[in-house]
Amino acid sequence: MNALITGGSRGIGAAAVRLFTSKGWNTAFTYLNSEREALALEEQIGSSAFAFRADAASRKETENFVRAARARFGPEDLLICNAGISYCGLFQTMKEEDWDRVIDVNLKGAANACMAVIPSMVQRKAGCILLVSSMWGLAGASCEAAYSASKAGLIGLGKALAKELGPSGIRVNCIAPGIIDTRMNAEYDDSARECMMEMTPLGRFGTAEEIAETMLFLAQSGFITGQVISPNGGFVI
How many CA atoms lie within 13 A of 23 on its CB side? Predict the structure, then answer.
C-alpha cells in the first residue's frame, strides 16, 4: 500500500509517516522549510519513506511530487492532505498577502493534491483521501479567521468530494483535530495552555500520534466516507 502525505516532516505529518511505514506502507511526503527534519525522518525510516520538497500552494510542485512518488512506489492508495500554516491576529489588521497565503496553503493546497491524484484513483476505482481540518473549522477561533475559514473550507471540500467520488469507489473524510501538542501550538504561553487544558474535558492536549492513529483507522475503514472525525478531547462537542 502506498500513501502520499503533504506536510510530513514534523508534527502530525511526521507521526503519520512513522505510523504508516511501521504498518508496512510505502509513504512519500512533502516538506517545504523543514529540510533537516524531513531528510532525518527519511533516513531513520529507510527505503519505505520518500521525502520531496514541494510548496502545497503550487499546483506544479504538487504534481511533480505525485509523479516522483509514483516513480518510486507506484500508484497511490491514500492521500493525506496535512500541509498547513496558521496566522494569529485581529482580522481587521490582517494583510491581504497573509490571508492569501493561509488560504493558498491550507485550502488550495489540498485541492491541488486532490486534483493530482483523483484521475488515477477514478481510473482504478479505488482510493482514500483524508483532509486534515481543525476543530476551529467546526467552531471558529477568535483572531484566527483565515485559519478557521480555510479549515471550514476543507470540510466542505471533503463532503462534496465524498459525494462526487463515491460512485468511483473513492472515500473522502476529514479529520478535525483539537489542540495538539505540536510546534504550531508552541506559541501559546503557559497561562494560555493552562486555560485551554481547563476548557478540554479530558484535561490535556492531544498528541500527534493520536491523530495519526485516527488517520490509520479512517484509511482502513471501507464504509466510512463524507464524515468529519474530530479528536479534540471534548473541547468541541
Answer: 18
Alpha helices in 93-167 (DSSP H): 96-103, 109-124, 135-139, 145-165
Instruction: Give 3-state DSSP helix, strand, coil % of the chain, rounded to 5.
Output: 50, 15, 30
pLDDT at 212 over 80: yes
| pLDDT confidence band for 154 (50 / 70 / 90) | very high
Q: Which helix (H) or strand (E) holds 73?
A: helix 59-73
pLDDT at 184 over 80: no
Alpha carbon separation from 232 to 32, 138, 156, 182 (Å, rounded) = 27, 11, 19, 14
Helices 59-73 + 109-124 axis angle, to 10: 40
Provide the residue ranges of all domains of the chain, joining segments of one domain with +: 2-229
Architecture of domain 2-229: 3-Layer(aba) Sandwich (3.40)
Report which residue type is found at 34.
S
For residue 83, the SS3 value is: coil
Helix, strand or coil, per DSSP, at residue 223: coil
Provide the annotated active-site residues: 147
| Cβ atoms of residues 100 and 24 within 8 Å | no
Q: Is the distance from CB of 22 to CB of 216 less than 8 angstroms?
A: no
Q: What is the mean pLDDT of residues 147-163?
A: 99
Cβ-contact 158, 132 below 8 angstroms: no
Q: How far apart are the first and last CA of the chain?
A: 34
pTM for this predicted structure: 0.97
